[in-house]
Amino acid sequence: MRFTLALVARSGRWIAPFLLLAVWLVVVIANPGSALDNAANLFFALFVVALWLTVTTGNVDDDPHRDLCAASVGGPARLQTARQLATMVALGPLVLIATVLGVASGTDHRSLGTDVVGTLGLLVSAGLLGAATGGFLHRPILANVAWSVVLGVVVVLGVAVLPPLRDALRDADRARLEGVAALFVVSTLSTTAATWLSAVLAARRN
Amino acid sequence: MPEERVRLESAAVRFGRRVVLHDISVALHAGELACVRGANGAGKTTLLRLVAGVVRPTPGTRVGPRACAYVPPALSPPSLSAQHWLRSVHRTRSSDPFAVLADLGFDGDVRASCRSLSFGNLRKVLLADAFSRRQYLVVVDEPLVGLDHRGREGLNALVGRTRTEGTTVLFAVQDDEIVVGVDRPFIVRDGGLHDGRDDDADTHVTLRGPIRTRRQLLDDAARLGYRPIDVTPE
C-alpha cells in the first residue's frame, strides 16, 4: 500500500481529481445551505473523485510493472485489494476536509452532532462506493481506458437513481439521518463484496 | 534431494481461445538454477509468469510460495528514484540492496528518477531489488538484456550467492543464448516444456562452471553453433 501510494503521488495523476474536488468544494461553500444539504451536494464530487482515483491507482503502472508488484505481494488478487485499500486510505483526509468545510459553511445548524455524523456518513459512503465501483474499471479487469471513462460516466449517472442513495439524499435535505444510516450500511457491505469480487476477477483476468 | 520450492502440475495457460502453454509439469528445488530457452512467442514469459504466480493455470495447479521476486524483461520506469524504490517496494531483505546494486556495477544516481536512468542501470535496479530480497524463488526474464560486462559478472556472483542460501533461480533467455552453470535446462516449444538436456546435452555440460571470459564464451558459442551473447569487438 505504501509503495502504491508513493507511485501515485509521484505520478502526478492525482492532481486532476483533486482539482475537481477543490472546485466543487469552492462552489458548495460559495452557495451554502444546511450542513446536510452541503453534504448531499458534495456526495457526487466525492463519488467521482473516489472512482477516478481508484482507476488512476489501478492504471498507475504498465503490465510488466504490475506483474512485478503482483509477484511481490503474492498474486494479482492481493495486489488488487492492496491498491483498492490504498485508494481508500488516500481518500480519508479528503473526506475529513470535505466534512469540516461542509459543516463549517452550513447556514442552518440544528445540532452539531447530527450535522457531523450525517455529513461524515454521506461522504464516507460516497468514497466507499466510488472506490468499489472504480475497482472494476481499470486493468487487468478492464484493459481499455476509453471504456473506463464511458462506464465510469454511466455508473455515476446510474448511481443517482438508485433507491438507497436517492432516499439518503432526500433525507439529508430534510435533515434526517435514517436514509444516511441505511446508505452507509449498504455502501460498506457492497464495498466489501465488490473488493472481494474485483480481486477474484483480477486474478482471472491477469 | 533438496526441498521442493515450486511445482506445476498439468498446468495450461490460455489467452481467450488461444492455448499458449499446455500440460506443463515441472518441479524446481531449493538452490537450483533453471533456465528456459525458446524462440520469440514460444511462451517463455508466460511460463515465467505462471511459475511466479502472476498468471493462473487454467487448468492445472501451481504449488509454491505465494510471493516471489519477478523481474520482467522491460517495463515503463516509474517516477520513483532508485533509492525510494529499493527502500519501499519490499521491506524484508537478505542483503543490502545498495551493496548489490554496486556489485552489479550501477553507475547512475540512486536519487534520480528511474525515468532518467539508462536501460542497463534500470535493469540493475530491478535485479538488485530481486536478489536482495529474502525469497524462496527469483524469476528473471531475459537476465542478460541491457547488462554490460561488469553487470554480467555481478549477476553471476549474485546467482551463486543466492543459490547457496537455498533460493531457486529461474531464467528465460532466447533460443540461441547461453547461460553459464545451469542445473535444469528447459526448452519451450509448441506450447510444451521440454528437457533442454535432451536437445543439446553438450551445451550445458560444456558451459557448467564459473563465468567464462569473453574469448572462451565466443569460442564455445562458435563451436556449438550458437550466437554469442557479447559480440562487441575486443
Description of the structure:
The complex is a heterodimer of chains A (206) and B (234). Chain A is mainly alpha-helical. Chain A has nine helices and no strands. In chain A, helix 3 packs parallel to helix 6. Chain A is elongated and about 55 Å long. The two termini of chain A are 19 Å apart. The model of chain A has no long low-confidence stretch (mean pLDDT 87). By secondary structure, chain B is an alpha/beta fold. Chain B contains seven helices and nine strands; from the N terminus they run E-E-E-H-E-E-H-H-H-E-H-E-E-E-H-H. Chain B has helices at 44-52, 82-88, 97-103, 119-131, 149-164, 196-207, 214-224, and strands spanning 4-15, 18-29, 33-38, 61-63, 69-71, 137-141, 168-174, 184-189, 192-195. In chain B, helix 3 (97-103) crosses helix 4. The radius of gyration of chain B is 17 Å and the shape is globular. Mean pLDDT of chain B is 82; it is low at 200-211 and 230-234. Chains A and B meet through helix 1 and helix 4 of A and strand 5 of B.
Structural class of chain B: alpha/beta
Query: Could you state the order of secondary-structure elements of chain B as H and E?
Result: EEEHEEHHHEHEEEHH
Largest sheet of chain A: none
Low-confidence stretches of chain A: none
Class per helix and strand makeup of chain A = mainly alpha
Q: How is the quaternary structure best described?
A: heterodimer
- End-to-end span of chain A in angstroms? 19 Å
Physical arrangement of strands within the biggest beta sheet of chain B: 5-6-7-3-8-9
Envelope shape of chain B: globular
The number of helical runs of chain B is 7
Low-confidence stretches of chain B: 200-211, 230-234
Give the secondary structure arrangement, pairings included:
The complex is a heterodimer of chains A (about 210) and B (about 230).
Chain A: H1 2-11, H2 15-30, H3 35-58, H4 63-73, H5 76-104, H6 112-134, H7 145-159, H8 163-173, H9 178-205
Helix pairs in contact in A: 2-3, 3-5, 3-6, 4-5, 5-6, 5-9, 6-9, 8-9
Chain B: E1 4-15, E2 18-29, E3 33-38, H1 44-52, E4 61-63, E5 69-71, H2 82-88, H3 97-103, H4 119-131, E6 137-141, H5 149-164, E7 168-174, E8 184-189, E9 192-195, H6 196-207, H7 214-224
Parallel strand pairs in B: 3-7, 3-8, 5-6, 6-7
Antiparallel strand pairs in B: 1-2, 1-4, 8-9
